[in-house]
Each structure stands twice: as C-alpha cells, then as structure tokens.
C-alpha cells in the first residue's frame, strides 16, 4: 500500500528545549515522603496505598476551592505536594484563571520560594490561552515583587504570550530587549522558533526573512525546528508553492534532514485542501527519503480520505495500521466517527464509538462533538440529551466547541427553548460562550421573529467583546 494519518492539523516540530519538568518535582524536599522498596517487610499494603492515593487526591482537589476563597479564609500551611499538583494540573489543562488563583495561594505559603521556572511555565500557558494582559501582569510581579532576574526561558515565554495573541510588535520588542540584556538572556534558537511560529499563525510571512537575517547576525543557524515551523505555517495557510519552496531550501542547505514532522506537515497541507493525489505522492517521496510514518501520519491520511468522501480508502489505512502493528489512537476513532457521522451512516458511527470504548480509548470532547453533529445531520435530536448525560458521568471537561455543536444543532432545528437551556448549562459549567455561539443564537432568534431576545443577546456579546478589548489595551 502506497498511502495511508493523528488527527487534525499537525504542528511544527517539538520545541528544541526539553519540556519543563512538572511543578510537582519542586515539592521534593529532603527525605520526607520517601517510600520503602516493595520487597521490604514494611512495604505498603494495597489498602494503605489506596487510602494514601485517595487522601492525596482529596487534598489536591481541595486546593482549587481554597484558592478561590477570600484571602481571610486562605491557609498559609497547606501541603506543598497538593498545591503543586493542583497548579500542575491547571497549567497542563490550560485553565488559566484557576492556575493563577492557585499560584497566588502558593505565594502565600510559608514554604514558597519564587522560581523563574515556575513563572516561565505560567507565561507559556497564558500564551496558549491568549491572555497577554495577564502575562504582562505576571511578568511585572516577578520583577517588582519577587525581585527575580528574568532568564531566557521567561523572556521566550513572554514572546509566546504576545505572539500567540497576534501582538507581534510587542513580541519583537521583547526580542530586541533580550538582545541588550545580560548574557544569560540573549535570544537563542528556541526563542526565534517561537517567534517564527507566531508569525506563521498570524499569517505575517513577510516578517520571516527579517527574523532569519537577525538570527544570522547573532550567529544562530536555521535548524530543523525552524524549517519545520516555516513549512507548517505555509501549509496551514494554504500557500502550497511557498511550502514546497521552504522544503527545497531545507534540502539545499544540507545541514537539516526532513523528519516525521516535516512529512506530517506537508501531508496535512495537501490533505486539508482535498489534494489526496499529491498527498499520496509526497507520502511515497518521504518514504524514499527514509522517513517512516507514525500514527499521526496515518490519522492525517484517514481524515483526508474521510473529507474527500473516500471511506474505502480511509478504512484501508486502518487495516494497514493493524497489519503493521500501529495501535489506533483516540484521534483515529474520532476521525472514523466523524466521517461516518457526516456521511449520515449512524449505524457505523455508533459501532466505532462502542469499539473505541471497548478497546480502552477514552472519548473526549471531540468525540462527543462528532456524535452530536452526526445525530443532528440525521435529524435524531432526541439522541443528543443522552450524549450530554454521558459526559456528566465522565471526567471529560466540556469545552466551547462542544457547546457550539449542541447549540447549533438545536438552533437549526428551531428548538429555541432547549438552545437557551444549553447556553445556561454552558455557563453553569464555567465555560464561556464565544462569538460562534452568540452569532448562532442571534440568527435563530431573528429567524423566529424574537427580535427583543436577539437584541439582549447582542448586548451580552458586546460586553464580552469589550472585556477582551480591555485586556489587550491593558498591555498596549
């Protein structure tokens, strides 16, 4: 088989720098809490181990509640491990408001010691969440209150926070500030890879040549991570000719060899544009270069075939994966479920959803979105409440895209009352509605002659937009 895909768009290569160690690691102090070897007579019994795990989980879950309490009710003697695990969990899941509350609580603890590494990780999270105002405030706290000297990773995280929010002028200003800073704060390859990725996300490809020239002036080479970032950026923007030119530049340089991230970026770009023939051609080209596919590669190809209404080819990739001992991931099943749902084949959609759970794959919000879309397209709205109830019985955190699907399904069917109930349910889940939901509901109200309700929702949307603008203006 010449062609066979993880799901949705691939990202550029992983960061050059190793992933920051979890914040939990900072809690290790001396020999406290050291466990005995399991072979020792005093080894923990299963019942004792379970009780200890439950106590730890209860302590961790309680930290968020304490962080949200008023300052007068907050303790200064909390268990370090519980606080650090709660902060680590909030950062990993990008719950930025909760993470900042927990961090503020942590700063009040007697055992707290300020670390630049903690600030760098929080700033990176705020960048992913597009919260430049909060990132600026946190950076200022580090400088003015903690008296910590910024390091290259802190500055790079701040570049990410501004760049990912589309504030490239501010991101470039931070890089200029780094160039005039102490030796330990000079921008490195990782800083420039973050900056170039931000330029690509903002479709500011015109800035990339100047950034590369700046790197050359500082004696920094264009490594495989940066090449992959540029290739991936052009691919996501649909600029396929420039993408191929960037690949040619990478090959002509001779210092960098295409890897699996290069391959996945190019296959995704052609597959996303429906050019499956080119996708298959490049799959073969990369195999000739010695680049072997991974599960993400097969998922990309399966999704492309599904979108092109080629279910036979999609299933042949799944068969090929099993023959080569590649284990399907949750993303693999999401792609299959979505494909059959869009095709109106509810029987197969439900079959693969059951198979996903049988094989131990945990459904996620994307899975449930695909099910809702499938039932909506088939006119089976009575199945959607069951999907919502299923999520209530799991630890899946429902996100805005899921509620977009549910509210859109009821809006299209003219079920205005249920649509309103779902909006309230969304708010009860502390999930903030976005522009898509407001637009969908306003259009539904207008279609049913409910002009007054539409105006009220427009006012609510305007307040939401103004709040976002205030956050950006605070930075500027």
TrEMBL record:
PPR repeats lie at residues 151-181, 188-222, 223-257, 259-293, 294-328, 329-363, 399-433. InterPro entries: PPR_rpt, TPR-like_helical_dom_sf. Residues 27-47 are annotated as: Disordered. Keywords: Repeat, Transit peptide. Pfam families: PPR, PPR_2. PROSITE patterns: PPR. Belongs to the PPR family. P subfamily. This is Pentatricopeptide repeat-containing protein.
